[in-house]
Amino acid sequence: MAKFKKAAEIKVGVIGYGGAFNMGRAHLNEMKQAGMTPVAVVEVDPARLKIAADEFPGIETYSSVAAMLKKSKVNLVAIITPHNTHAELAIQCLKAGRHVVCEKPLAITTDECDAMIAAAKKSGVVISTYHNRHWDGWILKAMELVKAGVIGEVCRVEAHMGNWSKPGDWWRSSKSISGGILYDWGVHLLEYGLQLLGKSEIAEVSGFAKTGFWAPQTKWGKDGIEDEGFAVVRFRNGKWMSLLVSQLESNPRRGLIEATGTLGSMVLNWDAVEVITHDGDKTVTTRHPNPPAEGWKLYQNIADHLVKGTKLVITGEWSRRPIHILDLANRSAVTGRAIPAVYS
Q1: pLDDT in tens, 224-244
Q2: What global pTM score does this model have?
Q3: Which CATH architecture has domain 7-133+296-312?
């Protein structure tokens, strides 16, 4: 894939500048930190487009993706738009021969992911996802402890997040736009779990959902996200993983993830990983502070891939795995049965 002589030759742009936590600015700055050169912004809001021009003097500004693809020499585009627009925008850019990084999730359905990966391969370009949390401090520490054998063989991962509260009224609370309650933080939690479980191959997914309590109280009505979503992933090697994201959680659980192994367990918290092991009949709990996050490695890896041919960490196929799980969980919740995996 090496094509450029140096990272500065990679001209980068974003689609969507300030609608989600000022992520357009963040992406451009991270790509710039990796040595790449910001050249273009696409934004439908004129006020945000002006802010982009002020914050990146000389940057090209466009009100449509088509205009950017026609007029700009941008090589790599980051897509920072609502989930249900990722596939269409990415395929438009990929067919035009541009490398693409989508904000997570890559897409909403497996079919969308397949179409994006196929378009990238046909054009000989990269499709990736902004899984910067692949390098969060808690998963870096947890992986270090797992590789050291501290809790033995990991056989079960439970991921959970929630509280008792009405969802907000923005687009992430729309089922059709966001994909559902599991698609926001759930994608991160699944990716953590897939790292912890290593080469485990997905066999089937069961999904469960409670709907109808909060949605009528939001502007989305029947299109509101679920009150609670739950998924269980069975792997071919006998291991399993569960994911719970809830707006009905009156008794929130500790941490983000609990991983259970043959010699102990660990709980991933924001500030530290707590390890529970055994010394004879005695239970021993130790606390391991998390190192700083290294999310900058995502764009550095992409730059190195395009310049040096370094192996890409977050490939389209890797990004598809959590989406495939969520897609199957959605289908399972509707049909009331486990759905076999197509991709392992």
Answers
A1: 999 999 999 999 999 999 999
A2: 0.96
A3: 3-Layer(aba) Sandwich (3.40)
